[in-house]
Amino acid sequence: MSPTRLSFVPAWNGVQLRTLTGNLLHLPSPRVLLGDLNMPPPFPRVLSRWRSLANVATHPAWDPRIQLDHVLASGELPPVVAIESLELAVSDHRALLVQLVGRCRHCSPLSAPLVGGSAAPSPAASRHVALIVRTIADARRGSIA
Residue 75: which domain range? Predict the structure, then answer.
């Protein structure tokens, strides 16, 4: 799982995306890239040649009209069972929540909602996912400072 934030400069963010996804191909599959890519669909999918796991408006947070935040995947992942766009108190973008449930040949079991996709079977990723889930729960309660 690789979180990122790309440039808002048109074309340059495309170069960044192609470079990043090319570098991620050296990592074991499955791969998930998530974050503020600062480009609307279909550009992330077309430029990366990865599949999009969510199609929902994320910007601006108070009246979402365009998707700038994405979850892209390469390799086998369990199916997406839920997608949400959550307003947070601290951002002009909404959080993109993608829930995967099931098992793939190369993955550990997944059954928690994750911002951006798949949990890698490492302790660091588990802590990251737990933090994300807590952050989403806090956002739903309106308690993020």
Answer: 2-141
